[in-house]
């Protein structure tokens, strides 16, 4: 069984992911498994999709401050940040703001 | 179970950092645009008939700025004539790409575009300057040259005002930087929404109270096209420390960004404090608080192979600039060790 989501990157964040802006991800699930909250998905992305400089993506257990997270085009602060439980078909987007204006 | 917009009950898509309010797309657009309009009106930034040059780099802030200026100018009938003004500092791989974005902006917003380069103005590109001075103090040179370049560009276009996309995060970072470095003089000036009124063209920042997060979200939802790479020289910039600190603070209490700006405003220079008188640079005629303007001092240093001249103390600089060619070499021995400190 898998949980299928798309991960999108923008604002320069794609540079940490082999310059690919869109990734299709299949998260493995089993009966009785702990839920895939964003708190679990973020480190999974860091360990499986990121190609360089993990410290520029995550800080401690969460996203590096300065990178915005959108779940289905909604500010993640609205849906519960790390506590949000990811659903099949969700789109998670990371927009970096850490560059010149 | 979707979270509802606190203004209209629609589907909320954003939580505002300044007050935690949850808003839907349309309400967000309205409040974003209206707050900037209020900033413009309350601070009397423009007069009807003003010719305004928009400092455009192709980045997120200036792209949204161009869009907003066009929208508000038409919606509220400011009666401004708008121009896009871009400066090419000559940074390979960074600036050439972002200028392509500005060309696209020109077509999208239907605004005339002028591009000025450091090479034509000063005969030095930033790449050449960095080769000479090394990887420290780059932003110091670039900032001084860019400000003057914008002024000259605006003057060339017969504009009386320049607008730049500096946002609340930028200004809060500047306040922090000036506190950390004990730069009282700059601290007193850095929160002014309008600067340079004594010169040829005045500069203002309509985004002074606008959060960077909201600018990025606005651009994202409105699908505004902008350029997203970091300047290749920025990793060594001091501002990076202030930025990291500010982002960590924002995570704990988002209101902090506006509060730091307010503190900076409250720390303005007292009336009684003597301010330098303004005159014209004896070499290029630009507005200056000393006989030679900062840009000319920097260029003098670069051209004489003593690039850190502008960063050394006043007395040493005055003495070196007074000397002719040969005498310089005698002083060289003594100042070599001082330069090494920078």
Structure description:
The complex is a heterodimer of chains A (101) and B (342). With 101 residues, chain A is α+β, with helices and mostly antiparallel strands. Chain A has 2 helices and 7 strands; from the N terminus they run ββαββββαβ. The model of chain A has no long low-confidence stretch (mean pLDDT 93). Chain B is globular. Mean pLDDT of chain B is 87; it is low at 323-342. In chain B, the strands form 3 sheets. Chain B has a 6-stranded mixed beta sheet with strand order 5-4-3-6-8-7, with helices on both faces. A two-stranded antiparallel ribbon of chain B has the order 1-2. Chain B contains 14 helices and 10 strands. Helices cover 50% and strands 10% of the residues of chain B.
Features:
heterodimer, A: 101 residues, alpha+beta, two-stranded antiparallel ribbon, globular, B: alpha/beta, 6-stranded mixed beta sheet, 10 strands, 10% strand
Per DSSP, the total helix count of chain A is 2
Q: Could you tell me the mean pLDDT of chain A? A: 93
Helix content of chain A: 10-25%
What shape does the CA trace of chain A take? globular
Order of helices and strands of chain A: EEHEEEEHE
How much is the average pLDDT of chain B? 87
Biggest chain contact = A-B, 20 and 34 residues
Q: In angstroms, what is the radius of gyration of chain A?
A: 13 Å
Strand content of chain A: 25-35%
User: How widely separated are the two ends of chain A?
Assistant: 43 Å
Model regions low in confidence, pLDDT < 50 over at least 5 residues of chain B:
323-342
Class inferred from helices and paired strands of chain B: alpha/beta
User: What is the share of helical residues of chain B?
Assistant: 40-55%
Strand content of chain B is 5-15%
